[in-house]
Design brief:
CATH architecture of the largest domain: Alpha-Beta Barrel
CATH class of the largest domain: Alpha Beta
Helix content: 25-40%
CATH superfamily of the largest domain: Aldolase class I
Number of domains: 3
Bound molecules: acetyl coenzyme *A, 3-methyl-2-oxobutanoic acid
Distance between the termini: 55 Å
Shape: elongated
């Protein structure tokens, strides 16, 4: 085997934090959420959102419950600037929502950003410069002091423009961009220098956003970085520590979760993890993770499909079928043992008294996010008898007796083995009809009259007069027994010379009301030892049973 070029990469260094506290913490409340869909999400799209799409996305974010929304980078492009103006001039920002705008720590961009915010009630001016070791070297060719000065000069300008514009509703956020690639003590030094400019207080906090601009380490090391920072920052009560994780290693959500345990107050992210490269932290997943632990997520994803549809329309991105909580297949089991457990779990759930959700393989109730139970079991060659029985009951109201499950399961398995494809419910129904209900050869019930006689002593007997097609001939017979089935079987045995016994019988209503039909399931065994189920459906339960007998016999003859 050829080995890969792993020696070109270095291990991320450990963090010196031997008494880390975060591993024994749990998250008991939602962090302050900030959506960056309209900025980090938008800047990574092949076709960025137009004004109309941005408005639609903004309205969705408000509807979901975000109170802080980064609406763009107004100094970057006209559409970004215009969007801020439309929101402000058309009074589209609800009272309780703060919009946030991003700018590089560069004078002309900061000034333009303030122009875009003219007249806003509440806004966060978010400015950044990269502080990472690598970018200082290869992008800026500056030393630590020079890079710190970019941040400090930016902070001074951002602060003075607030006064110049006389807008008390402006707050500040600073990001040492590429924080996770920056020496921790240096990132701290830069943030302290920025704090010295703003002089934040507990009533007037500065947001320090510590981005994992590129996800470079395992989530535990990220949590160590955040705990280290939270412990070393001065005036901790005067700053909000914000997270902004990316998903380069596929663990942005885990990194954000552990970092909240490590002390962060606020989390930036996007719907479904849209954003640069592999995306930003997925707020839907993180908030529903909290939800699934019994914590109020403070965001409303109770109609997840609507959120997905608007997201897909605005971004032209598709949500993956396996995306947590929302993907088409995430509440679906194809495999037999999962189906069996879900089927049993759903039944047990109906009888639970404590209302807690506890169904195998379904971490949350799909209905809590506006999904249905419709597709929790779907059938293909990996499926089992329990799943097939579930579909028959759920989709068509046929409660196949348990002893019949293996038989019908095998019939469906043969089809799925042949096609290799999923078998939708209507195809399962077709197979059921063909196998059990539509068989008329060699036996076919043409007429049947049932007469039940009750004697004064309470005993009763039944006479069945039937006309049955047998191998193309028409045979008329009469039988007497202690009930319609017994009478029919006796008569039939006599005239057809076919001998069998009844092994099991069950029946139920399929529909309700005066027009209700009944389904009967009868298992018969011939003297040869072979046995089969038959199914009959009729408005009259006795006729349904007689049809079920002939269905079973026909199957045994086939
Ligand atoms: C991690 C993130 O997601 S950060 C957000 C990223 N988002 C975006 O960049 C989207 C919007 N950006 C843009 O539209 C543009 O990049 C703008 C408007 C911000 C800047 O435009 P331009 O100046 O034309 O282009 P560009 O970004 O290539 O400029 C790079 C220059 O700015 C310098 N620069 C970058 N950040 C800073 C800073 N904070 N302070 C001073 N100079 C900076 C670079 O070193 C480079 O300098 P050079 O020209 O001497 O080599
Ligand atoms: C500007 C910052 C917060 C950013 O987008 C990043 O670092 O990913």
């Amino acid at each position: 085997m050829k080995s890969m070029n792993f020696h070109r990469y270095r291990q991320f260094p450990g963090i010196n934090l031997s008494d880390r506290q975060w591993p024994s913490k749990t998250i008991t409340k939602a962090p302050i959420w900030c959506s960056v869909d309209l900025r980090d999400g938008n800047q990574a799209l092949r076709i960025p959102m137009n004004l109309e799409e941005k408005l639609q996305m903004f309205d969705l974010l408000v509807e979901v419950g975000f109170k802080e929304i980064e609406i763009g980078f107004p100094s970057a492009a006209q559409v970004e600037y215009d969007f801020a103006r439309v929101l402000i001039e058309e009074n589209r920002i609800p009272e309780d929502v703060t919009v946030q705008v991003l700018t590089q720590a560069r004078e002309h961009l900061i000034r333009k950003t303030y122009d875009a915010l003219e007249g806003v009630h509440k806004a966060i001016v978010h400015f950044y410069n990269s502080t990472s070791t690598l970018q200082r070297d290869v992008v800026f060719h500056m030393n630590q002091e020079q890079i710190k000065q970019i941040a400090v000069e930016g902070a001074k300008l951002v602060k003075s423009l607030k006064e110049e514009y006389g807008n008390p509703g402006i707050r500040f956020e600073y990001s040492p961009e590429s924080f996770t690639g920056t020496e921790l003590d240096y990132a701290l030094e830069v943030c302290h220098a920025v704090m010295d400019v703003f002089e934040p207080t507990p009533d007037n906090k500065l947001i320090l956003n510590l981005p994992a601009t590129v996800e470079m380490s395992t989530a535990n090391l990220h949590a160590d970085q955040i705990e280290w920072f939270c412990r070393h920052i001065r005036n901790r009560e005067s700053v909000l520590i914000s997270l902004h994780t990316h998903n380069d290693r596929g663990t942005a959500v885990a990194a954000a979760e552990l970092a909240v345990m490590a002390g962060a107050d606020r989390v930036e992210g996007t719907l479904f993890g849209n954003g640069e490269r592999t995306g930003n932290m997925d707020i839907v997943t993180m908030s529903l993770n909290l939800f699934s632990q019994g914590v109020d997520p403070k965001l409303d994803f109770s109609n997840i499909n609507r959120v997905r549809d608007i997201y897909e329309a605005c971004t032209r991105m598709n949500v993956h079928q396996r995306h947590p909580y929302v993907g088409e297949l995430v509440y679906t089991a194809f495999s037999g043992s999962h189906q069996d457990a879900i089927n049993k779990g759903m039944k047990a759930q109906e009888t639970r008294e404590d209302n807690f959700w506890d169904v195998p393989y379904l971490p949350i109730d799909p209905q809590d996010v506006g999904r249905t139970y419709q597709s929790i079991i779907r059938i293909n060659s990996q499926s089992g008898k329990g799943g097939v029985a579930y579909i028959m009951e759920r989709e068509f109201g046929y409660k196949l007796p348990k002893a019949m499950h293996p038989e019908f399961g095998r019939i469906i398995q043969q089809i799925t083995d042949q096609t290799g494809d999923e078998l939708p419910p209507h195809e399962i129904w077709k197979a059921f009809e063909q196998e059990y209900l539509n068989r008329t050869y060699p036996y076919h019930l043409r007429e049947c009259h049932i007469q039940m006689n009750a004697s004064e002593e309470g005993a009763s007997d039944t006479i069945v007069k039937a006309v049955v097609g047998i191998n193309g001939d028409v045979v008329e017979f009469e039988g007497k027994g202690n009930g319609p089935i017994d009478a029919f079987v006796k008569g039939f045995n006599q005239y057809s010379n076919v001998h069998f016994s009844l092994e099991s019988y069950s029946e139920h209503d399929i529909d309700h009301g005066s027009d209700a039909r009944a389904a009967a399931y009868i298992n018969i065994r011939k003297s040869s030892g072979r046995s089969a189920f038959g199914v009959g459906v009729d408005r009259n339960i006795n006729l349904a049973s007689i049809k079920a007998i002939l269905s079973a016999l026909n199957r045994l003859e086939a």
